Amino acid sequence: TKSEVECLVKLFDALVAESRNRFAAVGFDCNMFRDVLYRMFGMMDDVMMDRVFRTFDRDNNGCISAEEWVGGLEVFLRGTLEERIKYCFEVYDLNGDGYITKDEMFQMLKNSLLIHPSEEDPDEGIKDLVDIALKKMDYDHDGKLSIVDFEKAVRDENLLLEAFGPCLPDIK
C-alpha cells in the first residue's frame, strides 16, 4: 500500500542517515545491508546475505537505492509464490548463467548447514544432499536446475523454496 511504501522509504532514509559510507547520498552498501538483514531478519550467513544484496542491487552498482530497497522488500516480505521462486533462484544461481549447478548447490549448502565435528568428512554428506536434491528437482535430467526445474519442484513441494539455504525472512 501507499502507506507501507512511505514507511519503507522512511526506514531507508533513517538507515542511510545512520550509515557513514561512500554511498550515503544515494543509498547503502553491502556491509550496511548485511547489518540490516542481521538486525531486522536474523540472517547470519555472510554468503547468503551477499547473494540477497545482489538480488536487491538491480543495477549492479554496489549500492541499494530507495527504489531497489522498496522493490526488493516487496518480494522479500510479501512476494507471491512465483516472485519468491524467481528471487530464490536468483540467489542460488551464483554465476547468473540461468542454472543452479551441482557446484553452486554444494557451495550454498556448505555455507548454510551447521557442520558438527565428527569422524565423517562433512563434504561427503553435502555431496549426498546435492545428489538427493538433483534427483528430486532435476526434471529434465541434465545435471543442473533451470528456473523451470526449480519452479516445478517448489510447486510440487513448497519446502524446497529455500532448499539451498535461508534467503527469505521467517514468519516473524
From TrEMBL:
The answer to whether the entry has keyword Metal-binding is yes
Domain EF-hand span(s) in chain numbering: 44-79, 80-115, 125-160
**What keywords were assigned to this record?**
Calcium, Metal-binding, Repeat
> Do you know which SUPFAM superfamilies this protein is assigned to?
EF-hand
Q: Which SMART domains match?
A: EFh
Keyword check for Metal-binding: yes
GO: which molecular function terms?
A: calcium ion binding
The protein, known as: EFCB1 protein
The organism is Tricholaema leucomelas
Lineage summary: Eukaryota, Metazoa, Chordata, Craniata, Vertebrata
Query: Which gene name does the record give?
Result: Efcab1
